[in-house]
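Feature request disguised as a bug report, sorry. It would help if multi-protein outputs had a clear separator. Right now it looks like this:
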Amino acid sequence: MSWSKEHIDAVARLGADADYRAFERIGLDGMNAARVLDVGCFDGFNTVLKFAPYMGLSSIVGIDPFQDAIDDAKDATADTRFSWECTSLQDYVSDDSFDVVYFSHVLQHLDDKKAAIQKAYALLKPGGSIVIKTVDDSAKLSHPDDADVMRRLFRLYEAHVLPRVAHTAHTDRNFGAKCPALLRDAGFVHIALDIVHANTVGMSVDQRRGLFERMTYFRRAKPQGLEQDISQEMDELLVQWESMFEDEGYLFDTPTFVITARKPDGGHDDDVLKSEQAIGTLPIELGGGISAQPMHESHLGQVMAIETASFPDPWSPLAYVSELRYNHDARYEVIVDRAGAVLGYVGVWVRGDESYICQIAVAQAARRQGLGRLLVIRAAQMSRVRGAHVLRLTVRESNADAIAFYRALGFRSIGTLESYYANPLENGLEMAMEL
């Protein structure tokens, strides 16, 4: 019994966006002369799809315990950066360490998942990253499903099929939620989880059928010796589940867990930590039960509440999302209390030797407590570390309190921008401070 190459390659294409987001989290696009290890590379299609676009990679090694898969992988690309080896992770030996170790729908199948994560840790350079893409059937949603068709099928498959097939004998179909704790126990830091969903909402009938096929193609294959009554019950459940996908009122959702983590950077990790805190990519404690943290999309509800209460012409949520995702010149931070409530935020654009405070605000209830000053200090720190020598901002000419506040911090007036602000129309006063 074997899994379909066509199905596996199709899943690789359909789910590639989740991998690329994970690669963005670990900074893969900015790496130079970096080495990647893909564990369980299969026919090489997924390996090439995911890593060929990153020209800063000097070596991508794919390993797989099946020789047929490695033979196919050798024909996957003419790119000389890629190499392939028939071996298990347990038996793999490398003279050089790696910047990234990657598991795509592989780790859940290994017999000793803890040992595999520890081996990945050993193969990584200090500061290197692990990327794990995996499943968790316990998080799948089937509604309405009063007869519990999906769960009954899953239970039969796990009890009677998985243990009888060599490459699934140790498979844990509910692995996703367990993975972050295993990474922590192995010594990894900066663990991040992205749960990516595929569901039937808005799908055409053909698309729903395609999703059903992706969920069941491997569950249709049965090992020799499977009891007739079990086989028949599985067939009946598959027919029932397929008919549910035909109903536009049926909702099915399947999550993919994508976890990234970093190996500590040895004796330099404290310096790296301090540097990343200064740059604005890691949290930093400010005392008094508050901390500055990188702004994430999960903060936007609280940010927008402050934004709309602070400005007559607020930025839109889409503007913030675009900044956070795509503006590599920008850094945004929030100040939060112990409970995670956002008390204020600041954003800077750093271009060359100048930096610009593009947005800054403090929640109404948290004003006159020194948070505005802390936000400006953080803006100056993030700017200085990234090479800026001047910090600039623009304020409404009529905002006398804000102008006095910035002058007290060392800003000086450098010019006027005619009709800079709308709603209401007003000039903007440009101010700057040497860093």
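(second protein starts here, but nothing in the output says so)
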Amino acid sequence: MLIKKDKRSLYSIPVFSFFNKRFVSIILKFFGIIHIIVLVFFVYMAVALDKGEIKTLIHSVAQQTYWFGKMLTNLPIKWSNNISSNHSVLNISIAPKDYQLLMTLKDAAVKKEVYLLREYKRRFPVVVTYNDDKFDARIRLKGDSVNQHQNDSKFSVRITLNNDTFLGMKAFSLQHPKRRSYMSSFLLHKFTEKENLLTKRFNLVPVAINGKYMGIYNYEEVVDHNMTESLTGVNNIVVVWHDDEQFADFSKTKTGEQEVHSKIVSDYYHHSRLVTQSFNEVMRDTILKKDFERASKLLNGFRNGNFTASEIFDIDKLALWLAMTDLFGSYHGAFFNNVKLVYDRDLDRFYPLVWDAFSENAWASLGFHKYNMFKLNWIYRPIAESNVSLERITKQMVSDQKVMERYLAKLDEITQPGYIDNVVESTKSEIDDYMSKLRLDYPEFKMEDEINRIKDNAYYLRHTYLYPDFPFNAYLSGDDNLDSLILVNRKPVPIKIISLLNTTTDNQFVAKGTDAGFILRNNIPGLPGTPTKVFFECPTKGCFDTENIEDMRIVAKVLGTNKNTSVKINNWVAY
């Protein structure tokens, strides 16, 4: 009789049986460790953080996990892109002992967790090679915040050429693309160029140091009179707030609360020195020095309240800068210590340069702060908040009604449907070239995501602030006058009250005392709305009687915009 042996699985063989048990044990231990880590994480959040901090931490972890996963899954594409790339590499040759000292300065600053003060910005001679061309130059560490600029394999540096220019630049910075939010700052520059506002040279370049490939960096031109001369033919100076004293103070603080206190007490906006970029060159030139002294008087007069914005700025260029930085949510570049002002000696006026679209966003364009997008929503924050000093320059700018109206008109123009697509289409070749370089290190990013973000911004700005459904509330005045109403602005934008309309008869009655319309002042976020009494030339008896009020509408529009809206009147006394 034939006896068949029992069939056994592969893992029933002694060797594989041992492997199977060991493998399962390892997997169980791994997930057990993960479980403990997650448990400790949630216990820490529950004990140490409040609800707001928990929400922020969870969002940050989720965002970083998402982009880390995207990075891993795109590694094969990254390797393929680098192999097939034909982009020229910028190589920085530096003597070994100088490079070692440069790294010692970098590591010392990171270890001390201080701001990058002057003692860490020693310059070293280098040779920059690009497309077989060689340039003698000097290099130093760059940036104010060590954690943002130096605590990374792609640390930030400033390169100044000795007797030549690189791609037209006398001096430029190299930094991690995340410091400029990868795609956002590039598009901000392209959009601004299309509006004919002067912009610095800004793009991507593969970088190597002493032949070691470091990856893709943003290069960013240093804005000074050399830049303005090379781009316009006129060497107009660029004026900035000197922030060395500010960061020297910050380096002495031990807590975030102390730094906030330093900002409030020292008031760096009003008390920091005004200087120019490439200051020593300017002071050695008779004409440029005279320009600087004139520019200093104008700007000091402005920040002290002796001049209005329309008296010292080119209003059209200022309005474009205000509107375009709103569209991109680039509030970081609107802080006074990041504002770069070109002084036009022929017009005796200033105009700002767009700086960056950075928004504390290290991973993608998706993490921008909506609440810091529209300037009129955040520049009026209470004095106790940490950035109040940083925001004062924009607050002073829009306090001028001429500037405010031109700014909102420009924002109306650039948030119109179709505007973004038109600019993108006209710059398609430049965008494609930029993205081909960005994908060498970051194939996970798509320009479509950034364009959609900007479109979302445009929709938000347009429908929430420029054309809101309910811009203000209107009530009966509550006194014996039959020709007045109480209006309460709901929005941080000024509203032009055009007329009172009887929808039954189509009769319109203008606000008394003005032919151009009454301006309802903007509401300041965080403060109660101010009830404002407005009188109308209404010859009809009992204009605001209960039986007539249903037919009455207030015709108005946000200052600077093109389309009117009509607001219904509430038939009761509220104030």
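Even a blank line would do. Unrelated, but nice: The two ends are 108 Å apart (CA to CA).
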